[in-house]
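User: Hey, my collaborator sent me this sequence without any context and asked if I could get a structure. I don't really work with proteins. Can you help?
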Amino acid sequence: MTVDSAYIRPGIAESGASDYVALLKPRVMSLVVFTGLAGLLAAPGALHPVLAGIAVLCIAIGAGASGAINMWYDADIDAVMRRTRARPIPRGRIARGDALGFGVTLAVASVALMGLAVNIPAAAILAVAIAFYVFVYTIWLKRRTPQNIVIGGAAGAFPPLIGWVAVTGGVSVEPLILFAIIFFWTPPHFWALALYRSEEYARAGIPMLPVVAGLEETRRRILLYSAVLPPVTLMPAMLGFAGPVYAVGAVVLGALFLAGAIRVRTARDEVSARRLFGFSIVYLFSIFALLVIDGSTGLPG
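Assistant: No problem. I've predicted the 3D structure and written it out in structure-token form, which is a compact way to encode the shape of the chain:
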């Protein structure tokens, strides 16, 4: 189901720099950049500071490009959801075609710069990440299946992998674990949001889990993923590329996350869902911050 494009305000006002910044989804980008930087800093070996800065910049630009293309494609449903209707396209600040051109240009530039300045493997994974977010999540999954967040969540899990490969030039089990942490974190994070935004998603025709399976089943699955997540976050310590400070922090954070999920399941109210959603952002930042602070690869540089 799609929403009629008539919901988008007719006419385009003069666009400002802030409108193009908004297309990049800066709040989402901040988390992407941080996890990408964490992967880069946790990797064995070293990268020249200038090249490291370029790698992080490319991850940021690639994430922004994905956001802009997503807003181009989803402009119709953005216009009818309260949390997205102030975005530049529904407000008539930027034309859809301009948003698409902006996003594609940034996507090509980010991949090209990564390949030329850093290395080809990192550029290839960045290209896959952008393509996955645009074609698999945005265009294919989001409007078709309640598994959109489960499968599509892989798009947001690429940044630490890209950061790691920017340093090492190859994929190993360590960055795949970092990928897995974000992959298993994504469903409870977004389902908590969907619990108190379910009416908006239903109105926009997006088959989020609460809309299709109901609130109770969503709460059950949030608890399931929240129980799986802590053991996954302990794997860096178990494999020796994070130390005891990280391990203790991951246990404490995991217990708090699980407690929040249990509260969502038992309280069955909007407040608990909002709290879990907010804490989930702090949780992911904290896990990757601990990884950088206490990172110890024990591998030759």
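In plain terms: Confidence is low (pLDDT under 50) at residues 1-8, 296-301. You can pass these tokens on to your collaborator as they are.
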